[in-house]
Amino acid sequence: MAALNWSELPRPIIALSPMADMTDSAFCRVVQEVTDAGQPTPSPLVMFREMVSAEAVVRGNDKTLGMTAIHEAERPLVQQIFGSDPVTMAKAASMIEAEHHPEGFDINMGCPVYKIVHNFNGAALMQNAELAGNIVRAMKAAITVPLSVKIRLGWSEPTECVAFAQALEAAGANLITVHGRTKLQGYSGVADWRQVGEVKKAVSIPVLVNGDVHTAEKVVEALKQSNADGVLIARGALGNPWIFAQINEVLAGLPVTPITIGERLRVVRRHLNLHLEQYGEASVPTFRKHLSWYFKGLPHMKDYKEGMMKASTRVELETILDSFLAAHNTTDTTSYRPDVITKK
Ligand SMILES: Cc1cc2nc3c(=O)[nH]c(=O)nc-3n(C[C@H](O)[C@H](O)[C@H](O)COP(=O)(O)O)c2cc1C
What's the CATH superfamily of 13-251? Predict the structure, then answer.
């Protein structure tokens, strides 16, 4: 597949936001399959793979390099990298490009968690535009595909993003995603889509809006308030890979197709199969994080959930899924997913 040309992709650009431990190959494949089965769109759905450490890649850490492998069905895919040393970042990107050929790279300059920022990675880079620019320049010189950067509104002040984004553009970034919160806000408060619009006004490269776009309908409002070129969806896609097909329906002026219990279970099983294919038959326990999102908020789940969270083999888990299905009407489309997601 050709490298992404962010400036020429049909608008709005819709993408799956990078999420550590979540947007792995199995999940990205599920998202693409579910989206492909829905409304056709002129713009391909873009996957952002979870972040990997540049240092670990350069050290030759097999597990980290394995996280950057791409199944053809996931493409187009952007690999996100975190780090703060321009030379290491450039080397890691060039190693991943040679091995797996993603359609783009992204730099994490928005992660607020301590274990990332205390090494001056993630959102900490927003405090040093010169270093951030040097990372962009070094990576651009090392890769042949476009380079994007994911930032927040600022470290402490929501206005910091404007000059910072201009510095990234001057250094050669091809696209910027802005999560509408500061680092100090973490996940509290509400994403400020209008402030993302200040970045859009200040740069000429494309800008994607991110944060709190948790339903298909909210895409329209986020785009209106920010005037961004597209949207990156994170938590709204967890346990809910249908959100992209629903977004395509909303954008086409069609009613949103509700998800039946039968379809939910079909996709849970498909995701389980792909997860076990990727990590091996013993990896049922690491699928639990997805299960809790797939069944989030559904009434009378206590007994099933307890069983699901204890199941450690495919047979145990499939038995519980079978009994859940047998006890429910497969055509039931009760919507139980909360509109506002508070969990990180
Ligand atoms: C479990 C989880 C893991 C995340 N991992 C990453 C990551 O690897 N890289 C990144 O840039 N952002 C990461 N984020 C942040 C999201 O991409 C996104 O910016 C944030 O959740 C706000 O968007 P949302 O309201 O659509 O969830 C993560 C978020 C969550 C919930």
Answer: Aldolase class I (3.20.20.70)
